[in-house]
Design goal:
It contains 4 helices and no strands. By secondary structure, the chain is mainly alpha-helical.
């Protein structure tokens, strides 16, 4: 990655500190080295920038997804046919 990918020239570079578990740090180390980044910091900047510029889920969507996964595990789901009967909707494919 180039310096231009991390700073557009008019922003001040600041240091940010955060804590992670040793096992997670080991995963980060394996990942950045295995993907060809020049440093752990470069990998973390790239990952954070990607998360900001291209968010996959917002918090509410993630919570709903996790709830749906729990519903499936706890067998609190129903078939499409059961849902049509319960909610009185017709099959749109007929």
């Amino acid at each position: 990655m180039s310096e231009t990918a991390t700073n557009n020239g008019d922003d001040e570079i600041v240091t940010v500190n955060f804590k992670v578990t040793r096992s997670f740090l080991n995963e980060i180390e394996d990942t950045w080295q295995g993907r060809g980044f020049n440093s752990r910091s470069e990998f973390i900047r790239y990952t954070l920038r990607d998360a900001v510029e291209h968010p996959t889920f917002d918090r509410d969507e993630l919570v709903a997804l996790l709830q749906a996964e729990e519903d499936v595990r706890e067998e609190r789901t129903m078939s499409a046919e059961e849902a049509r009967e319960r909610f009185g909707t017709g099959d749109t494919n007929e």
